[in-house]
Amino acid sequence: MITKGPRGTKDVLPSEAYKWNYIENAAREVASGFGVGEIRTPIFEHTELFLRGVGETTDIVQKEMYTFMDKGDRSITLKPEGTAPAARSYIENNLGVDQQLKMFYITPCFRYERPQAGRLREFHQFGVEFFGAAGYSADAELISLAIAYLKKLGIDNLKVNINNLGCSECRKKYNDALKEYLRSNIDKLCTTCNDRFEKNPLRIIDCKNPDCKEVAKDVPLIIDYVCDECRDHFDGLKGELEALNVNYVVDPYIVRGLDYYTKTVFEIISENIGAQSTVCGGGRYDGLIEECGGKSTPAVGFAIGLERLILTLEAMNIEVPKPMGPALFISSLGDGAKIEASKIAFELRCSGISCERDLLGRSLKAQMKYANKLNSRYVIVLGEDELKQNKVNLKNMETGAEEEIQLSDIASIMKARI
Ligand code: HAM
């Protein structure tokens, strides 16, 4: 059906685009305040990047990627997330010369998931990645950036949940304990999880299959298996979050759905947007750059789902400021006046003053109705008389006040008013 977009996609209509502009501008402002520069990576990457980066046993790679062969017989994948592409670019462009590098992106992502409220097949992320810093201060600064952003939008009641997934050494010990626990229930797991049992048992914990969820309910917790260094890192982070007055809760059940995480993971939850309540997810990923072929580089990041953010703003009745109407609406009657309206509109628009006029040949009454609908701040009516006398009434639509001005002065008067 060509008049219906693909399932799981959503148009942003002109009437609601202002919300997107608002949250994206706020993201840019907050990022800039934290010294974070923008990166833009392609919409598609070599499939291999996500197999290696996100992990072959994750749901994203196994079930959700939009992967296809291009005309040159290369396997290409639409990005399901922004971290692996940022890491690829970091390596390719030798960005490690800056020892401390912070970058953000606003990007569409694609996952073949079952659509529902807050879950789409094309969605958008505001993501932030810090490369080069191994200490917990980077984790704390990153989490505080997410909070500063949400606060700027008027959202200050979200739950911040953190957990510690340890390093590869802790993971080995934990995997043994986890397999020990799962072994007796292996026949209850889905086929994908049966396969995960040997390769990556941690993934069984966040499988969405209800039977697997039931088995995973009482698994041993990774936070009880972390080494001293990972524990110290986590304690340091908690201390710094407390110093920053960040209200966090340790949630030992967070494992996250991507394989690259080490040590800190966190999620920020909105309790009033339904089942898909995780607005922000992130964590440390000290092994990813090396996994993708670069020099061992510590890193930490997060991504906020912008559709879920908008749902949260709506659920909390937070008004996003509506864009102002045009500074001037030029109504016109007759062909001569139409050309004059076109000239004035062009001059004003070129000097940055917004201006609107009728393009449909509507009656004067209908033009005034349209000017009102647009919330125009000033209105003039141009007819043959106004042109002849070079005079026009400038009406302030807010106060109703009218003044007669020289038509030839309209541009300079509007520039002075706006
Ligand atoms: P993620 O948890 O997979 O992490 O996604 C981050 C956020 O994207 C989620 O919390 C959610 O708000 C949004 N999101 C995910 N899937 C969908 C969907 N199908 N529809 C709507 N929104 C969705 C990552 O992607 C990591 N790259 C985050 C990260 C950055 N970790 C380190 N750096």
UniProtKB/TrEMBL annotation:
Keywords in alphabetical order: Aminoacyl-tRNA synthetase, ATP-binding, Cytoplasm, Ligase, Nucleotide-binding, Protein biosynthesis
Cleaved signal peptide residues: none
Principal location listed in the UniProt entry: cytoplasm
Catalytic reactions on record: tRNA(His) + L-histidine + ATP = L-histidyl-tRNA(His) + AMP + diphosphate + H(+)
Localization in the cell: Cytoplasm
Stored PROSITE patterns: AA_TRNA_LIGASE_II (PS50862)
Cellular compartments per GO CC: cytoplasm
Keyword Metal-binding annotated: no
InterPro entries linked: aa-tRNA-synth_II (IPR006195), aa-tRNA-synth_II/BPL/LPL (IPR045864), Anticodon-bd (IPR004154), Anticodon-bd_dom_sf (IPR036621), His-tRNA-ligase (IPR015807), HisRS-like_core (IPR041715), HisRS/HisZ (IPR004516), HisRS_anticodon (IPR033656)
EC number from the UniProt entry: 6.1.1.21
NCBIfam families for the chain: hisS
UniProt record similarity statement: Belongs to the class-II aminoacyl-tRNA synthetase family.
The protein's assembly and partners: Homodimer.
PANTHER family: HISTIDINE--TRNA LIGASE, MITOCHONDRIAL-RELATED (PTHR43707:SF1), HISTIDYL-TRNA SYNTHETASE (PTHR43707)
Protein name (database record): Histidine--tRNA ligase
Organism in which the protein naturally occurs: Clostridium cylindrosporum DSM 605
